[in-house]
Design a protein that fits this description.
Elements (H helix, E strand, L loop, with lengths): L1 H22 L22 H12 L4 E5 L2 H4 L9 H12 L4 E4 L7 H11 L6 E6 L6 H6 L26 H11 L2 H5 L1 H8 L6 H8 L28 H11 L9 H15 L4 E5 L4 H4 L5 H17 L3 E4 L17 H17 L6
Parallel strand pairs: 1-2, 1-3, 3-4, 4-5
Helix pairs in contact: 4-15, 5-12, 9-10
Amino acid sequence: MKKLLALSLGLLSTLVAADLWAGTFAPETKLGERLVLDDTFYEQNIQLDNAVADLKAKSSPKVIALGDSTMYGSVVYENETIPYFLRQDLQKQLPQATVANLAYPGARPADLYAMLKLTADAHPDLVVVDVNVVFYAQRILDEGALANKTLKREYLFERDVPHGVFAGNRVEEVVQTALKDTNIGQYRTEINKTLFGAEPRQYIRDAVDTISPKPAPAKQPAAAEPIIGVPWTAKTWDDKERATMARIYEQGPLTEQNDSVQMLERFQDYAVSHGIRVLYYLAPQNDTLIGKFFDLGQLHANQDYLKKQLENRGAWFLDLSRAIPASQFGDYDHMLKDGNHRVADLLAAEIEAKGGLRP
């Protein structure tokens, strides 16, 4: 027994010492206009944790923008996004207002709910979130309920978890995800590979075997600046693009059994129970392009269904699903600069009409 205790204490001390040692190579990250989608983003949430810490230190009024690639601004520069323009608009009302863009491409409703929980401690005065009908498609859900795997930790104590968040034992998966966020996991590539290529419960022993004084891995390069958007009319829409659109628009009617619908409801319930003010908006869709391939009836019915779900829970929302002309899109749902500017203006006007940001 004494031998086992001594061995356990020695193992713990070794891991702590190694973690501190690896931390000497840790780069600093600061919140910019939006998150940096480097090779580690969807595997380690150091950026998200640092962003939340940064937001905690900011004074009110502060706004957090949550969403997918349409909010992130995938086809525009970082100073042409909805959150960027929204900050400019809100600062005309309150010069000290801040807007943090914490959206990222691929974010599903399960991601957004986890992000709301993660950012609640930053005490935002307002959360603006896009409701994009794209991410309620069953084929998207079948690919995975959670795009950012690091957010599994937010589901550890949830009673009902969307199918696909956990593949196996949720405690072990959360532990492995958490270990990726230690200095060892972040900055010692060879340890990280051994750690998470192993079978469950083997990773501690493998970590001890792998620890050795080797040079620190090179910093991950920042993601390249996205290409400035080109109107969808200047692109060729062939079978490949049609197949991509079918994945997200060729779907049946939404129902209460849809995991993403349940996540939207849970998002609103959490916001109400924690006193978080939320403005939802139904993300614009390029009906002109979509209508070339698919019947718009089901799309509009699903948008109306999501709107009804928000109404039933007394949510504050703005229906912008058909508010942007086709000429201001780069594809089926990603807007160019002018479209993003227009959405930001409409959101700012809605916020002002409802009394502005809380001081």
